[in-house]
Amino acid sequence: MEKTKTNDFFSEILVPCRVARRGLNLGQQLNIITEEVGEVSKALRNNEKRYRVGEELGDVIFACITALDMLGFDAAGRADVLHRVYEKNLKRGYIEE
């Protein structure tokens, strides 16, 4: 994965939900992440359509991006963090290129 393409993607698509998190602290945001994971589980238990489960997983992703933003990571910093996780998973053999 090219780093420049990754940075562009994260800068343009994976943006934090700043309006939704106004007034929240990081602990509260982590609770939101937990709630969103619960919604994924519920959708799976209810045999929801694949698209619906995917949408709930997307909510988890955006909640995590928002938490990174709350920790002070700007778009480039978030892209860097995720790129490092990608590289770590690649080294572990979790990802095939």
Beta-strand percent range: under 5%
Helices and strands, in order, run as HHHH
Biggest β-sheet description = none
Task: Report the end-to-end length measured between terminal Cα atoms.
Answer: 9 Å
Helix content: over 70%
**C-alpha Rg (nearest Å):** 15 Å
Number of separate helices: 4
Name the average pLDDT. Answer: 88
Uncertain regions spanning at least 5 consecutive residues: none
Structural class: mainly alpha
In total, the number of strands is 0
3D shape: globular
Structure notes:
There is one protein chain. The protein has 97 residues and is mainly α. 70% of the residues lie in helices and 0% in strands. Helix 2 runs antiparallel to helix 3. 10% of the residues are buried.
Topology:
Elements: H1 3-12, H2 26-45, H3 50-70, H4 75-91
Helix pairs in contact: 1-4, 2-3
Sum up the structure in keywords.
globular; 4 helices; mainly alpha; single chain; about 100 residues
Gist of the model:
By secondary structure, the protein is mostly helical. 70% of the residues lie in helices and 0% in strands. The protein has helices spanning 3-12, 26-45, 50-70, 75-91.
